[in-house]
Amino acid sequence: MKTKKIRTALVIGGGSGMGRSATTALGASGIQVFVADLDVAAARETVSNHLGDQGRGEAFHVDVSRSDSVGALFQAVRERVDRLDLLVHTAAMLGKTVFVEDMTDEEWHKMMAVNLDGMFYACRESVRWMKEHKTGRIILFSSVASLTPTPGALHYSASKGAVNMMGRTLAQEVAKHNIRVNVVAPGYIETPMLDGLPEGFSDYIVKKTPLRRLGDPEEIGALVAFLASPEADFFTGQVLSPNGGFVI
Fold it and tell me: What whole-number distance in Å separates Cα of residue 16 and Cα of residue 21?
């Protein structure tokens, strides 16, 4: 069963980085994009300056670690449109390098609350809505850290590995409702998230990457646009990792 043309999308984490690039790519297709972020000013900046000539959008605040905040976001979007065709969830935190023996309960729980719980809350709300129309797409973001060990970021890698399995399992659950679920697991992309990493880390990654460069956010946006297109109708339950060969 072919999906209908995507007309509405919600990008959670669209205030910067790959979420902003995904918003730009979707907006270029004439899709109405609702952009949500913890930093609502950044979300507004995405809507104002990065949607392109064809784009239409609106910005919202959301704290993905809180179920009530995610629920309020979906209620606000429901008040504006009668259906949601696409969820793109890029919101995440990286945190500082910390090894397991020094990791606090708070650091562990905060990472899981943002990177995993937030995905669950958004998926639950999306599926409830998309089932009403028997169609929809969900694109979750994990990381190359879900595919290869990342010492010093055990909590981050664990949360992203769980996102991969969440996407695969959800894809099987909701296929009968004509809802497709895929996961994007980017490699090291030139976004503000890399700014918090130790000095020299980016150079180290480039040397370890066969293509000898970091990824461009626009390349990730293009992948999102593809997964949102009719050409990707046969894709579900997949983990796609544009990473320059860092993991093969």
Answer: 8
